[in-house]
Backbone:
């Protein structure tokens, strides 16, 4: 789907935090990817001996009690070799470690390297337990950066204590894929242009054809025609969902189909009975389904359930993606009040694309309307 490489050109909230290896005081090859499972503050200070980095670091350490390695950890990134010589890069256990980034390789990865030799940008990243960017603070006022970061951390949900895992479906939830404003824009597009009855695929007479059956599914879809909006949606899925699928399932997503805003409306009794998404020749290439909620909290009902894995229901937050294998049995429970809006693409790879192409001869005339394009 494009955008190859270790990191996007410019990191944004919701993007995966790039992995790297860099030396600390006690570990010459500290692997950053090993610190997931807690909130992380990654502070690019430039130099701990000169302002603004010195003042920014002092402000962050004023909130030392936040960094306990259970809920949160602070990682200071210095690009000044004099910090090493002066002994300014000390580990403070628990919770505070310092990376030596004297070649500025990590700084470049995170957009914190200045344009000139020896220059640096002072940036502070807050990263979630799944190693995704939550917030980025530019150190424009170093005196206040510690309070800003501490205030942001205080507003995050506390991480729960360890507990036995409940039986659940093998799904992946990726937060902050669509920003609230982009979610609202897609809903406004639906309201402005409307939706049409949404069918589902069946094999009839050796052909895959779309079927409308209110006893099985009641939903209305708007097919997004605007190329710019489609590309914006695709780019967000590519930057934020595809890397998580690669990490969780070792699967490289290269293709995406279907650009729709779907609406389950209580006024018409919206629901979708138990089904799988890859049981016809026209859908056999699908590998992962994505349910991206656009207005969580503004409706009742409409939960997603995976009957093979019990009665637990799933409601991803607004802008979050719930990702699962297209071979899993799943259903959308009846919506009881309001309207539930979702963005519903399917993801696959080049090998599956060849399956799709081979099965094109078995498609009915109306399938592409429902299947969408890559």
Residues:
């Amino acid at each position: 789907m494009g955008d190859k490489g270790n990191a996007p050109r410019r990191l944004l909230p919701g993007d995966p935090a790039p992995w790297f290896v860099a030396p600390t005081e006690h570990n010459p090859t500290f692997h950053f990817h090993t610190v997931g499972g807690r909130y992380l503050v990654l502070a690019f200070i430039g130099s701990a001996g000169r302002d603004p980095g010195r003042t920014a670091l002092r402000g962050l350490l004023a909130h030392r009690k936040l960094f306990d390695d259970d809920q949160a950890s602070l990682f200071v990134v210095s690009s000044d070799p004099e910090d090493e010589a002066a002994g300014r890069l000390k580990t403070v256990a628990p919770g505070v470690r310092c990376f030596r980034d004297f070649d500025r390789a990590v700084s470049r990865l995170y957009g914190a390297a200045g344009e000139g030799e020896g220059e640096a940008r002072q940036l502070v990243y807050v990263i979630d337990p799944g190693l995704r960017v939550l917030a980025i603070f530019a150190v424009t006022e170093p005196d206040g950066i510690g309070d800003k970061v501490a205030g942001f951390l205080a507003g995050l949900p506390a991480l729960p204590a360890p507990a036995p895992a409940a039986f659940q479906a093998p799904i992946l939830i990726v937060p902050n894929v669509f920003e609230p404003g982009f979610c609202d824009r897609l809903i406004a597009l639906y309201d402005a242009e409307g939706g049409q009855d949404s069918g589902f695929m069946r094999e009839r007479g050796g052909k895959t054809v779309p079927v409308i059956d209110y006893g099985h599914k009641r939903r209305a879809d708007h097919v997004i025609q605007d190329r710019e909006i489609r590309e914006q949606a695709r780019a967000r899925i590519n930057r934020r969902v595809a890397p998580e699928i690669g990490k969780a399932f070792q699967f490289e997503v290269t293709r995406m189909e279907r650009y729709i805003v779907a609406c389950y409306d209580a006024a018409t009794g919206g629901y979708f009975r138990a089904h799988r998404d890859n049981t016809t020749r026209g859908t056999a290439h699908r590998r992962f389904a994505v349910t991206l909620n656009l207005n969580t909290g503004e409706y009742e009902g409409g939960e997603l359930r995976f009957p093979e894995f019990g009665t637990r229901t799933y409601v991803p937050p607004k802008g979050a993606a719930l990702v699962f294998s297209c071979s899993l049995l799943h259903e959308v429970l009846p919506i009881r009040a309001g309207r539930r809006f979702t963005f519903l693409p399917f993801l696959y790879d080049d090998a599956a694309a060849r399956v799709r192409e081979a099965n094109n001869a078995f498609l009915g005339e109306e399938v592409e309307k429902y299947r969408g394009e890559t």
Notes: The longest strand covers residues 335-343. The first helix runs from residue 53 to 61.
